[in-house]
Amino acid sequence: MKFYVLTLFPEMFGNAVKGSILGRAIEKDLISIEEINIRDFSHDKKHGKVDDYPYGGGAGMVMQAEPIYDAFMYVKEKAGHDMRLIYLTPQGSVFSQSKAHEFAMEEDVCLLCGHYEGVDERVIEEIVTDRISIGDYVLTGGELPAMVMIDAIARLVPGVLHNDESSSTESFENGLLEYPQYTRPEEWRGRKVPDILLSGHHANVEKWRAEQSIIRTKMYRPDLIKE
Ligand code: ADE
Question: Is the pTM of this model over 0.90?
């Protein structure tokens, strides 16, 4: 799967999404991440300006339509086909594990990172297919949200996780939070690993884990139980 990112800060996407498990996936050619600097598509060759004052007044600057449009046309031409363009914005629908699965089915996606006070609405209407927020809080730009999405989507691409890192028993995969995990030693600072996990009785372990998932979800995310 290929991720294209339209951004004013391509340098932010260094090790954050190119190290560790995703770094291994990039080396194996399972995924790739390409940043496209929107400033390279500025029509103001001298200063590389890509923003301007908002019509109607108000604080801050607004990203102009044309450089973003041109940057996306460049991506589509390079890919040789159309693709979804996801605009990261606090005004979008909230990202979730099920949305990550939906995007992971695509051959490639393009992510648009906003900055300043926003993006000229007309280019959003013209080319954006999805408006996505990563939660009800406001960040300084769309780069961190784009990285969050890339990480969540890329790990669902077949082959990215090894079998022992499998995602199928994790939180949200069945609408519940994951059960608690323990490793050696059996006792740490007076806290013991639950006996059942040492019993070797596979069916009982599964039952205990299923119960713990429900208990945890009720305790920490009662909203998920209602759903
Ligand atoms: N840009 C700024 N805040 C954001 C958020 N919460 N989600 C997505 N993009 C954003």
Answer: yes
